[in-house]
Amino acid sequence: MTTEKQAYINIVGEAVGDFMQLPMGEDGRMQFDFSVGGGAVNAAIGAAHAAREMGLSVGVRFIGRLSTDLLGQRIRAAMESAGVDLERAIATNVASTIALVTRTDARGRDQNGFTFNHQTKDETAARFPQIVQSLVTEMPPNLFVFGGISTVLSPDADHIFRAMKAAHTAGCITILDPNVRPSLIGSLDTYRANFASWASFAHIVKMSDEDQKIIYPDKDHNAAAYTIQRNDGTPTIIVTDGSKRTTLFQPERSFEINSFVKKLDCSNTVGAGDNFNAGLCVGLVSKGLLKPADIVQAHKEVLCDVSDLANATARAHLLRQGARERA
Questions:
Q1: Which contacts qualify for 223-231: CB closer than 8 Å, 24 or more apart?
Q2: How many angstroms separate the CA atoms of 35 and 17, rounded?
Q3: What does the pLDDT read at residue 1?
Q4: Is 253 exposed, middle or buried (0-12, 13-18, 19+ CB in 10 A)?
Q5: Which of 142, 185, 195, 321 is the most exposed place for a label (fewest CB within 10 A)?
């Protein structure tokens, strides 16, 4: 017997094979640890796990390409194992996107650095707007998450932007996570202008502290949130600063939520933000916040509960990655 779904969480974006650099082998060879990745894949798997753990009847869909190569098969298997609906995934013979992940970034800071090997894709991305359009009028309600590298990779970005616009115009909750990867960005000025266009079709913009510093280098969290709300009309802004706090901004209020992540020692934070997005979506569904107006009108305590679940989902992911509880 098929259980009726409370809602569908639709994650739109790229599938990536992550290769985390390990210490050099004794024989002098470079070593890497493979894991399935890409913001959309991480969020889809995280949302499926979180919904199941809460006992919610929530469908989670991945909308994106999946290569038929070996890496694509591994990524597909991981999502299928988690219970992600792949009916709208598009199979392609183009090689999987690969990310080489280092423990330090290009400036030597103690945070992950990313270098991407991305093959020019075929034109199957042109199907994304039609796929989304076919879902927006369905019941139960649909939530959509966009962002990550798919918003900057050509020609996919234009098609995914049209898909986001279709979801927003239809009144579905749309969430944008820029998840900025500087190695993929040419002109920062152009990127910032494009981000403003994307944000204008989002009901929630969630960004990390690092994202905010890249997009708005001359502003603090408060000023950046105010700028997005004033210029782009996005009603809810969430800024995460993993080791410190999560701050939620709305037109008439803002408040901080304690971060579970600060209780952990982490050497690998890849996927934490994606899993925050997963918990955010599941939290919105669990609280019955299924329309854009519901989020703006929700009581502070309800939004804190949603954010707590988002942080808890990110925390659970980090523990699976090998993080340790602080004494």
A1: 225/249, 225/254, 228/196, 228/199, 231/196
A2: 6
A3: 44
A4: exposed
A5: 185
**CA distance linking residue 127 with residue 124, whole number of Å:** 6
d(CA 247, CA 215): 17
SS3 assignment, position 112: coil
- The closest of 316, 312, 315, 292 to 304, measured between CA atoms, is 312
Long-range pairs for 98-101 at CB < 8 Å and ≥24 separation?
98/16, 98/17, 98/19, 98/71, 99/16, 99/17, 99/18, 99/19, 99/37, 100/19, 100/21, 100/32, 101/18, 101/19, 101/20, 101/21, 101/270
Question: For residue 114, what are the domain limits?
Answer: 7-23+30-325
Task: Judge contact between 12 and 131, C-beta under 8 A.
Answer: no
Rounded alpha-carbon distances, angstroms, from residue 249 to 141, 222, 244, 257, 277: 24, 8, 16, 11, 16
Q: Which of 243, 200, 245, 247 is nearest to 223 (CA)?
A: 247
Name beta bridge partners: 60: 9
**Token pair for residue 229?**
């709300």
Residue type for position 124 = T
Query: Taking the mean position of all CA atoms in its chain, how far away is CA 83?
Result: 18
Residue 77 lies in a domain: yes
CATH number at residue 64: 3.40.1190.20
Number of structural domains found in the chain = 1
185 assigned to some structural domain: yes
Per-residue confidence (pLDDT) for residue 265, from 0 to 100: 67
Tokens 């800071």 identify what position? 109
Break the chain down into helix, strand, coil percent, rounded to 5.
45, 25, 30
Phi, psi of 296 (to 5 degrees): -70, -35
Which residues of the chain are under the pLDDT cut of 50? Answer: 1
CB-CB contact of 67 with 95 (8 Å): yes
Neighbours of 278 (CB within 10 A): 31
pLDDT digits (tens, 9 = 90+) for 70-125: 999 999 999 999 999 999 999 999 999 998 888 655 555 556 677 888 776 677 88
